[in-house]
């Protein structure tokens, strides 16, 4: 995981973008990953939030047999993850004059749910998407509100022996 975070940090730095902030889950794995990535992005502000913690966002459709959290988890986690979406995924302020770039370091279930919501796909389909550990997903939100998915779970910058998924 640490090697994957190192590779991800190098990749993000190589993009030449001026990142405004790194917003990360308060869970240990995401906090440690943020520390490794941020070494490659000096001066970028880091913000920790419980909203991005891993969880069960919504009951998947179609259902799966290998993962069955208790129903209460969907209510608790789902409300929190939806709050993360509403808090972080939106158009820039109308007064903003330059593009902004934010990095979110969190967990596959949260990312998959947010991608579905941002693209206005049925969010129940979140579990149909697969993400590798340390991967980069790139969402673009235009001033007019249009959303584009540039990459989903990109790990092309990692050697094949470093690519894993949980």
UniProtKB/TrEMBL annotation:
Coarse class of the protein's main subcellular location: mitochondrion
Reactions performed catalytically: O-phospho-L-threonyl-[protein] + H2O = L-threonyl-[protein] + phosphate; O-phospho-L-seryl-[protein] + H2O = L-seryl-[protein] + phosphate
Entries under Pfam families matching the protein: His_Phos_1 (PF00300)
SUPFAM superfamilies assigned to the protein according to its UniProt record, in alphabetical order: Phosphoglycerate mutase-like
Location in the cell: Mitochondrion outer membrane
Superkingdom of origin organism: Eukaryota
Protein's recorded name: Serine/threonine-protein phosphatase PGAM5, mitochondrial
Source organism of the structure: Zosterops hypoxanthus
